[in-house]
């Protein structure tokens, strides 16, 4: 009985992990296409193009994360937050944390990718970091995790902000019907 429950919980956790990390599939497909390329010159060009696109993505994450952090900072100062449910504050402080960590991670990953592009052995170092050891040219899970973390944290930050805002607006309706006290 307990083994069946554990197995079900493990399956639910696995599905939840797949759902919360869905963008990895796009990143993994692009990386594995580069890793499986036989021609070194074509592989180098593909890697350089991917690196440029990834740097652009990291720039956008930095911009959006900063924008979200400033919006949350303004929202935390609202007078209605004092009477709000504690989950609103928790969601918004989580948003602030996630967005700031995503900005910092995007900044450092951008520096790393830029440094690898000017290093003579940068392509081989990057390919070695992205490729799992073995015969098959498969991507390394930890590298994908590190590369995807800024955008995933930014996504979580945005979701947490929306959850907090929804709770702030909807909570007055839990206790009484719509009226003057329901306006935030």
Automatic annotation (TrEMBL):
<keyword id="KW-1133">Transmembrane helix</keyword>
<keyword id="KW-0472">Membrane</keyword>
<feature type="transmembrane region" description="Helical">
    <location>
        <begin position="144"/>
        <end position="170"/>
    </location>
</feature>
<feature type="transmembrane region" description="Helical">
    <location>
        <begin position="90"/>
        <end position="113"/>
    </location>
</feature>
<feature type="transmembrane region" description="Helical">
    <location>
        <begin position="60"/>
        <end position="78"/>
    </location>
</feature>
<protein>
    <submittedName>
        <fullName>Uncharacterized protein</fullName>
    </submittedName>
</protein>
<keyword id="KW-0812">Transmembrane</keyword>
